[in-house]
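Sequence only, no structure available. Ideas?
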Amino acid sequence: MIPLLQTSLPPSNLSFLIAAFVVTGVVFIAYAFFVFRRRRETRNEIDRLLAETKDNENAGQDIT
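Reply:
I predicted one. Tokens follow.
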């Protein structure tokens, strides 16, 4: 049979495509959550260190 005249439809892989998009979306959201959480923790640590440095300067202590 000539492939151009074939009347049957090829198998649909749409369910695999949707599953791949769902998995990719979940992985991206999880990655973004962890990045933003780590950024917030780092920002809090920087603020704490700046406050500690300012307190040390106000007390007249040397920072080593």
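Residues 14-59 form the longest helix (46 residues).
Hope that gets you unstuck.
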